[in-house]
């Protein structure tokens, strides 16, 4: 039986992908706590969700760096008005510049921190809330990039890969509390993150389409969601290419 | 800046190069404008590129691509008012408003256009005779000028810019959001009545009666038919159905996209005339009535993605003009000319515009007949035909629709749009388009400059 998802917490609420997933929940009257660092953007997202039918949309201004300091008590306090949290959707992330990261530790660190270290620590805190609730769903956006390292973006990809493995472990831990963990792996989606990427436009999905597919995957409580769906098969092939050949490929 | 995609218009006869800036957040606009200006380029907003010609292109300049800017600011489902960012598509809005009992006040023949594009071309639909243009339903919008200044425009506030921006071809600045009124519906279904007519004369006899009895009317014309059948076709009329099956959204049939350009020979006078014969005779009765999902009634072509590729690499051009109702003879000569050329395709549409005034200085709709026809681009041949058609339009005091145009002469543009001198005073100096440079700036005659002086 499908449990209805009503109360949603969004981390990285100004992410275009997160917004489009949230819209689908808004249509059936969900209520939201939006967490992110840019108030102006988040207010626009909140207004949009209300227009789409959300029964509430509150903001908490906090960057991932701030969320590291939220302990269980603070999390309880922030979500108390909402009540039971049915869904935590975590979408904050940073693509960064691979070439820069190769020579600049600062950039390399920023990429790893935004896509692995910080999310891992923050999710650890929120897991306590879900363990206490004995109910709910944690959905985190990693990436298909994490399924195989490429010269083009391996700082980012390895951090996302780490996140996927983290989520497998977290899924096992949360299982006995009846809490589901969903690893969302988008392919290329048109968002600010991918502006200027030189990839064939055929491979790019529209955020509306990606949002609907991710929504369906989350609502069905699948462990891994590819968006668009065909990336499951593309990645299957890509994982199969022998390393001796793969290392010569440029893409 | 994005270099990922080549942005083009629907007809694909131009091959422009742009510096492209997709915009996701309203607050990024200021920085984008600054960058464009720093590169010494002109800018233009670009929605879904559903304009046929070059009015949405800015060759060698910057395109600010709006579809990602598509958040809804508010939707008052009691009063039927919506306010959204200008890149929102009509398709996106329909999915939101229809289930709550509302519909667009005016719908063009495709739902894949942006609200900004609907304003900038002051689009019309099948209900023009009762509802007028899209612009009539706008409460207000915000316009951002190239210097970064933001202005709320409404019939009472900055009213000159309001009138210039509606139908203003994107030349008065960037529309960030638009607030407009909706119309109530009880279902996502249309009651449709199709009436066959054997000739233009018959159309002229029955059209006004249909306009009196139906909210939505449009005619499909077999523009390859000759002689006594000249101007034969189907008059299609519709009404929102009261409460059939409720408001659940019904998506029209979705056929696969046309993934590649079809070879140029796929469309030729035989295949087209064959199609038109079948289409015309498909209907055996004089009158048929049926129910249809709203999407299929309003947007019959949207089921096939990228159908413009059917025309092959050569691309296509559309001709759309309006001439006064007293000039049905001119309409007949245009149809005769088109039929004789045997180059038109199956998409020929005739509609009688009503008398409701359009609010924009450069709005296209005016009372009378409007004829719109697609042509595969046969180069010189097509160009000659368009010139002859334009001559007829000019001789009868009509005008041509810039949203569809790719060949309009400067003289016909200036003759057709009497408010042009007043419009020019509102143009933002940082904005420009390929259309504007071709049709307006390309050839400034002396009389024209004088007319301008007296206007300002
Ligand atoms: C199949 C089909 C059927 C059609 N049927 C009809 C019809 O029945 N009636 C009708 O009137 N038209 C019709 N059209 C034309 C279409 O509705 C118009 O060309 C419309 O303006 C396209 O919108 P767009 O979002 O694609 O904008 P574009 O074509 O990309 O741009 C159109 C204009 O709007 C301006 N613009 C876009 N966004 C903004 C903004 N934010 N601020 C300022 N300016 C902006 C652009 O600069 C440009 O001048 C049809 C087109 C097609 C392909
Ligand atoms: N787009 C793709 O093709 C694609 C593919 C696979 C995976 N993903 C992943 O999908 C997720 C969402 O990305 P998107 O495509 O929607 O791009 P986006 O719109 O640019 O979203 C990125 C989000 O991360 C936030 N963020 C970055 N660093 C932060 C920090 N230190 N603290 C708080 N928030 C921070 C940004 O906040 P601000 O708005 O304040 O900057 C923004 O909301 C990311 O994890 C991304 O890696 C994207």
Summarize the structure.
With 251 residues, chain A is of the alpha/beta class. Chain A is 48% helix and 15% strand.
What can you see in these coordinates?
The complex is a heterodimer of chains A (251) and B (456). Chain A contains ten helices and seven strands. Chain A has helices at residues 16-26, 39-51, 64-67, 72-79, 98-103, 105-133, 154-175, 207-219, 231-240, 243-246, and strands at residues 7-11, 31-36, 56-61, 87-90, 137-141, 180-186, 224-227. Chain A has a seven-stranded parallel sheet, sandwiched between helices. The model of chain A has no long low-confidence stretch (mean pLDDT 95). The longest helix of chain B has 16 residues, at 380-395. The radius of gyration of chain B is 21 Å and the shape is globular. In chain B, a hairpin with a 4-residue loop joins strand 4 and strand 5 (81-85). In chain B, helix 9 runs antiparallel to helix 10. The complex binds flavin-adenine dinucleotide and NADP nicotinamide-adenine-dinucleotide phosphate.
Order of helices and strands of chain A: EHEHEHHEHHEHEHEHH
Task: State the largest interface.
Answer: A-B, 22 and 19 residues
Count, helices of chain B: 14
List the uncertain runs of chain B.
443-448
Rg over C-alpha atoms of chain A, rounded to the nearest angstrom: 18 Å
Q: Portion of residues in helices of chain B?
A: 25-40%
Summed up, the helix count of chain A is 10
Kindly report how far apart the N and C termini of chain B lie: 37 Å
Coarse structural class of chain B: alpha+beta
Query: How much helical structure, as a percent, in the residues of chain A?
Result: 40-55%
Oligomer: heterodimer
Mean pLDDT of chain B: 90
Strand content of chain B: 15-25%
**Overall 3D form of chain B:** globular
Bound molecules: flavin-adenine dinucleotide, NADP nicotinamide-adenine-dinucleotide phosphate
Strand order of the largest sheet of chain B: 14-11-13-12-16-17-15-18
> Biggest sheet of chain A: strands side by side, in what order?
3-2-1-4-5-6-7
Beginning-to-end CA distance, first to last residue of chain A = 42 Å
């Amino acid at each position: 039986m499908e449990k209805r998802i009503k109360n949603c917490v969004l981390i990285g609420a100004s992410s275009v992908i997160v917004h489009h997933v949230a819209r689908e929940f808004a249509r059936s009257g969900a209520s939201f706590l939006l967490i992110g660092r840019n108030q102006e953007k988040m207010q626009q997202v909140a207004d949009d969700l209300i227009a789409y039918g959300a029964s509430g949309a509150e903001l908490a201004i906090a960057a991932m760096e701030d969320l590291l300091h939220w302990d269980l008590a603070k999390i309880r306090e922030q979500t108390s008005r909402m009540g039971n949290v049915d869904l935590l959707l975590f979408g904050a992330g940073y693509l960064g510049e691979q070439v820069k990261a190769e020579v600049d530790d600062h950039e390399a660190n920023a990429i790893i921190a935004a896509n692995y270290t910080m999310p891992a620590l923050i999710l650890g805190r929120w897991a306590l809330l879900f363990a206490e609730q004995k109910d709910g769903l944690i959905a985190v956006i990693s990436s298909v990039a994490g399924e195989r390292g490429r010269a083009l973006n391996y700082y980012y990809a390895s951090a996302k890969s780490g996140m996927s493995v983290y989520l497998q472990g977290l899924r096992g831990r949360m299982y006995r509390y009846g809490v589901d963990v969903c690893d969302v792996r988008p392919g290329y989606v048109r968002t600010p993150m991918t502006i200027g990427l030189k990839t064939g436009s055929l491979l790019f999905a529209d955020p509306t389409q990606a949002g609907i597919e991710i929504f369906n995957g989350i609502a069905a409580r699948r462990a891994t969601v590819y968006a668009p769906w065909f990336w499951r098969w593309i990645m299957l092939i890509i994982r199969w290419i022998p390393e001796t050949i793969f290392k010569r490929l440029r893409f | 800046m994005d270099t990922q995609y080549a942005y083009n218009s629907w007809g694909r006869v131009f091959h422009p190069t742009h510096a492209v800036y997709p915009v996701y957040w309203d607050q990024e606009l200021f920085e984008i404008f600054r960058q464009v200006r720093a590169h010494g380029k002109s800018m233009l907003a670009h929605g879904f590129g559903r304009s046929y010609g070059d009015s949405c292109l800015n060759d060698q300049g910057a395109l600010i691509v709006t579809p990602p800017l598509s958040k809804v600011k508010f939707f008052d489902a009691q009063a039927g008012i919506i306010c959204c960012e200008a890149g929102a598509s009509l398709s996106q809005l329909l999915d939101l408003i229809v289930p709550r009992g509302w519909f667009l006040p005016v719908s063009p023949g495709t739902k894949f256009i942006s609200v900004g594009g609907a304003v900038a071309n002051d689009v019309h639909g099948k209900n023009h005779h009762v509802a007028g243009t899209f612009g009539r339903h706008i409460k207000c919008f915000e316009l951002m000028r190239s210097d970064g200044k933001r202005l709320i425009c409404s019939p009472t506030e900055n009213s000159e810019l309001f009138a210039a921006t509606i139908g203003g071809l994107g030349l008065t600045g960037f529309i960030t959001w638009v607030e407009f009124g909706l119309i109530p519906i009880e279902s996502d279904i249309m009651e449709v009545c199709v009436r066959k007519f054997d000739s233009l004369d018959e159309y002229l006899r029955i059209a006004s009666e249909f306009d009196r009895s139906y909210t939505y009317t449009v005619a499909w014309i077999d523009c390859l038919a000759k002689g006594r059948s000249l101007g034969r076709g189907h008059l299609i009329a519709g009404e929102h159905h009261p409460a059939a099956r409720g408001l659940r959204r019904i998506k029209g049939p979705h056929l696969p996209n046309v993934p590649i350009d079809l070879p140029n020979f796929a469309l030729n006078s035989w295949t087209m005339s064959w199609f038109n014969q079948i289409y015309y005779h498909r209907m055996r009765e004089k009158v048929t009535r049926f129910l249809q999902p709203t999407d299929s009634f309003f947007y019959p072509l949207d089921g096939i993605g990228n159908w413009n590729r059917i025309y092959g690499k050569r691309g296509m051009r559309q001709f759309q003009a309006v001439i006064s109702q007293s000039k049905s003879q001119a309409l007949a000569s245009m149809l005769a000319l088109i039929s004789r050329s045997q180059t038109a395709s199956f998409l020929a549409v005739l509609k009688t515009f009503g008398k409701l005034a359009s609010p924009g200085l450069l709005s296209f709709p005016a009372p009378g007949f409007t004829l719109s026809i697609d042509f595969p681009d046969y180069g010189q041949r097509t160009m000659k035909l368009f010139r002859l058609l334009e001559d007829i339009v000019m001789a009868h005091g009509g005008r041509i629709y810039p949203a569809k145009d790719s060949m309009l002469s400067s003289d016909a543009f200036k003759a057709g749009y009497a408010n042009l001198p007043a419009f020019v005073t509102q143009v933002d100096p940082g904005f420009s388009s390929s259309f504007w440079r071709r049709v307006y700036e390309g050839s400034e005659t002396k009389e024209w400059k004088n007319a301008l002086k007296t206007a300002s």
